[in-house]
Amino acid sequence: MTNEEILRHIDHTLLKAVSSWPEIEKLCGEAIRFKTATVCVPPSYVKPIHDAFGEKVNICTTIGFPLGYNLSAVKQREAEAALADGAGELDMVINLGDVKNGAFDRVEEEISALKKIAGKHILKVIVETCYLSREEKIRLCEIVTRAGADYIKTSTGFGTAGATLEDILLFKENIGEDVKIKAAGGVKTREDLEKFLNAGCGRIGTSSAVALLTGGGAAGY
Known about the structure:
Elements: H1 3-7, E1 10-13, H2 21-34, E2 38-41, H3 46-53, E3 59-63, H4 72-85, E4 89-93, H5 96-100, H6 104-118, E5 122-126, H7 134-147, E6 151-153, H8 165-174, E7 180-184, H9 190-199, E8 203-206, H10 209-214
């Protein structure tokens, strides 16, 4: 697998709370130069990036990040604002409290509402696998599929652990044919990148791929 092939699947990510505009500019320049799938950035940077770079860069941003327990109405407003500012993709965090309370209908309703807002834009659903049982992961694969989301995503990168190959394979067995997989958190070596892509990931969220594969880049998932 060539560097170019890997980079086409990368959401080039910078989500530190203290991310500065010069760092964001550098991230976007790298994304354009190395043709990554997106830049994944805080919502507050969506409009400045769109104003500065226009259609040269595909902007992904986060919704309900990183804990997911925002009210659904707040997540919906976040999504509307992000799309209006120029985001092309949304990575939403589910309400894990609803999962632990067995309120899976609420989880599905929330994802469906966000996908309705996203429309033709890509919606990725972060389930934060490090906090889930095997049974919960399988149930969420079914819910993400029924709700019409485009991707199921393993992690925020801020939980107790990130993506594992075991979870990718479990997702692959239980998602619908129209749902893709994004791995995030802890994917830091070239070997990791190839393993996750070969296992079936359509995207990988990481801050380190560009630096790893090209000898430069921003740091800080």
